[in-house]
Amino acid sequence: MAYGQTGSGKTYTMMGPDNNHAGYCEDTVLIGLIPRIVSSIFEGVKNAESHLQFTLTVQYCEIYKERIKDLLDRKQSKYTNSPQRNKTI
Prior knowledge:
9% strand
């Protein structure tokens, strides 16, 4: 969880710098907490014993003006497609 005033570095800490303006950090040394954690989870799944099965559920929430919004929930999102990544949000 990241909490703080506007411009205090929450996004930088959680995602890393966005020097290429692509919405993510390509520098593996500077990536933020979220990409590191997600990579670690998928690496664990990849390296698990073959008889194990996994179900992964992800929520990416924003709290703004005392309202909670799941940024990955299509029903709550005003966006239908991200032009930078060509992925449905």
